[in-house]
Fold this protein.
Amino acid sequence: MKIYISADIEGVTGITHWNETDKGKGDYGYFAEQMTREVAAACEGALRAGAAEIWVKDAHETGRNIDPEALPEITRLIRGWSGHPFSMVQELDESFDALLFVGYHSWAGSNHNPLAHTMDAHGIQYIKMNGIYASEFMIHAYAAASLGVPVVFISGDKGLMEEAKAMNSSIRTLAVNEGIGDSTISIHPQVAVEHIKKEVELALKGDLALCKIEVPEYFEVEISFTAHKKAYKASFYPGMKQLSANAVSFESHDYFEVLRMMSFVL
């Protein structure tokens, strides 16, 4: 099996404050290590299930958070950002048997995680796809679906697990924390590591075809920016319409065109 893992940090166990996500802050080091541990656990679970090739995308902020030496030797680690519209699943293609998400978080505008956001931590009020608030998981799960790659596992906050199950009930989910206001309730970091390892193994030993997500035939995307000047600038992207001082909309039958638009306006 050839497996792809996309990893973020705002959904690792224990994380609660923006200082814990920022390389320039003293709290960051511990949570970058926990992000690494959770990704390494997912790799171990994949190996136990028979994976022969594992690709990992470090998909938080700089794309330079995961300790490469902590990962199995067969792993290929994607660091930094190429600028490709696939963004957090850069290099994903039809050759992969499954996609896994580790450390993901709820969408901008939700109350499931103190660090909830979508693509831009502070510049986006919300993104909606076909009237539904979109998370980074949703955006990239549809990218996988457009290639026919099943999404088999996700870990992160409790609210996001509910979103994943709504997209496809066969996806194995693991809630490592739950956001309540500006606080979190989290499981023990070592428990998270062991559960990720176990759940990934079970996910990859199951019927992967059951985890394929259906791609909508048409996309209506609404983006609300915190700053009105960003909406004004985005309104000049081909096919974009301005809805209000802060919001724009874009429609397409082609999901790659949606991703291309986001790569230029977000």
Notes: The chain has a mean pLDDT of 98.
